[in-house]
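Treating backbone geometry as a discrete language has practical consequences that deserve illustration. The sequence in question and its structure tokens are set out directly beneath this paragraph.
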Amino acid sequence: MSPFGAPVAELPSVFGGEAAGAVEQVGADLTDFAPGDEVFGQAVGGTFAEYPRLPAAFTVHKPATVSFEDAATLPITTATAHDPIASRSSERPQSACACAHHPQQRPRWQAPTRVSN
């Protein structure tokens, strides 16, 4: 495992880091997934292959409302957004949410109120 918990592929390696599709086969001890389940996740050994191998720890069920193309982009994009926030959270816990504003501050889009005399 890498320092961020991602699986490390052996060389030579197949390119590609994420995949989405229907499960073809599962390991003997795996009960969370079954053949035919629609899933997406991060692969070990690359995804530019006919049958990429996705570890159960890095695989989730695909919501029915999300396309396979969109689901395949989620592992890397969410990790890209998560890592800088998580790496700073021990220094500044209040920065864990990048979209929040301080309750005493007026959001930039809100027009100032006019006080009449």
Observations:
- The chain has one helix and three strands.
- Residues 92-114 have pLDDT under 50 and may be disordered.
